[in-house]
Amino acid sequence: MLTVTQNFDGLSERAGHPQEYLVDMHGNLFNLRCTNVQCNFRKIDFDPNLGTSEVPKCPKCSALLRPAVVWFGELVPYNHIVATNEAIETNRVDLVLCIGISAEVWPAAGYISEVVKRGGKVAVFNPDSGTKVKCDWFFKGGAEQWLPIALNNI
Ligand SMILES: [Zn+2]
């Protein structure tokens, strides 16, 4: 089961979701990457609890390191787009769970309609009934309330 998440809090990883089936579209706050665009240094499982005098620097080029997340205005990593598109285009997605999202942030917002075009179903879990996502099932309320019930028989 492929999970495409916009969360960058590492929750899926900590919940034991297999990395090979996870696309963290907006990166992971607990990973670092170099600010030098010509450097490919990355570090995973970084402890973000450090003081301002401890700003981490790249061991390869000495540039500053930054959280490996996608900030507003930055592009989603190309390999994440490719992995998600491939899953959708090969009809491996028959159900999309939209959990607490506005479905207004692209490219993830576009994936819902792409799955629907291919016959997939949509379930929305959201405390806000004003969501604009057209869905087959709507669960009004928090994910902690509905997901255990909805996924109990899967
Ligand atoms: Zn570097």
TrEMBL record:
| Residues covered by the Deacetylase sirtuin-type domain | 1-154
Binding-site positions, Zn(2+): 34, 39, 58, 61
Q: What is the lineage of its organism?
A: Eukaryota, Fungi, Dikarya, Ascomycota, Saccharomycotina
Protein name as annotated: Deacetylase sirtuin-type domain-containing protein
**GO MF annotation terms:** histone deacetylase activity, NAD-dependent; metal ion binding; NAD+ binding
Gene3D superfamilies, sorted: TPP-binding domain (3.40.50.1220)
> Would the keyword Transmembrane be found if you checked this record's keyword annotation?
no
Query: Which terms are listed as keywords in the entry?
Result: Metal-binding, NAD, Transferase, Zinc
Q: What InterPro entries does the annotation carry? A: DHS-like_NAD/FAD-binding_dom, NAD-dep_sirtuin_deacylases, Sirtuin, Ssirtuin_cat_dom
Catalytic center at which residues?
A: 26
Name any GO cellular component annotation. nucleus
Tell me which family the UniProt entry assigns to this protein.
Belongs to the sirtuin family. Class I subfamily.
